[in-house]
Each structure stands twice: as structure tokens, then as C-alpha cells.
Amino acid sequence: MNGALRNAIAEELDVDPEELTSDKVLEDFETWDSVVVLTIMIILSDDLGLSVTPEEVKNLKTFGDIEKLVVSKRKE
What CATH number did the domain enclosing 12 receive? Predict the structure, then answer.
């Protein structure tokens, strides 16, 4: 899961997946903007089948936060 998720988000950010570490601050990427936030929401919803709110996605600060959100949503 993490590999596919990392690759999808890295593609949206136009970076190498290796740059997307758990502690990397998402806003530090030059391409981070509201469109990427919406795209992450779509990836989590459509690709992973998770129900996420805009507020949950807006509060994500690192790739590790995305991973934690996925884990918590899968437990619901």
C-alpha cells in the first residue's frame, strides 16, 4: 500500500518517490498547492476506497500523516 500511495502522491508533486519520506513536510514541495490537496483526497477516496473530509486532508502536514490517516480510516 505505501509504495503505491507514495508513487501516486509523488507523481502529483512531480518528485521522485524517494523524496517522499514519512517526516517530509508536504508544504516544502514547490508544487504543493490546493490542487494537490484535492488530488490526494481523490486518491484516498477513489483508489483506496476511504471516506475522507477536506478538513482531514487539509490538516496533513507530512507523508507520515497521510500514512497514519490511511491506517486509521482502514480501522473504521
Answer: 1.10.1200.10
